[in-house]
Amino acid sequence: MTQLRHSDPENKLLYDFEYLDELSDDDLDFKKNMILFFIENAPLSLEEIKLQHSNKNWKALREITHKYKPQIGFMGIKSIAEELETLEQSASKEVNIDAMPGLIERIEKISYLAITQLKNELERLNQF
To answer: Is residue 1 one of the residues assigned to a domain?
Structure first.
């Protein structure tokens, strides 16, 4: 199997259900509901992150980023965990403001790619 480069996120599986499987304890409906929750709510969180950044509302940006981290965690989207932590800490301390747009762009890109993958996985799970 060819190893995919970290720089090509669209070519690899972006989620890992290890934690979600542990939480769901083989409850398929719970798992599907968590995936659906993420698919529906992640875009709202991402829009809020962009809005608070553009408004330079650092406290609100920190809060929404903090709330988004568990959603990413439940879906096992580990490739942006560090960026979310950095964004939250930067907003909290009002530092590294110039780096925020790049962080937000990567978080958004990976999140939307993961949403596409998760929609496909949810479709597959709904066949059971």
So the answer is: no
Q: What is the mean pLDDT of the chain?
A: 92
Q: Note whether residue 86 is domain-resident.
A: yes
CATH number at residue 99: 1.20.120.160
Round to whole Å and give the CA distance between 98 and 75: 29
Angle between helices 100-125 and 28-54 (to 10 degrees): 160
Q: For 43-107, give the DSSP string.
A: HHHHHHHHHHHHTT-HHHHHHHHHHHHHHHHHHT-GGGHHHHHHHHHHHHHT--GGGHHHHHHHH
Structure confidence by residue, pLDDT tens digits, 69-81: 999 999 999 999 9
Domain that holds residue 102: 12-125
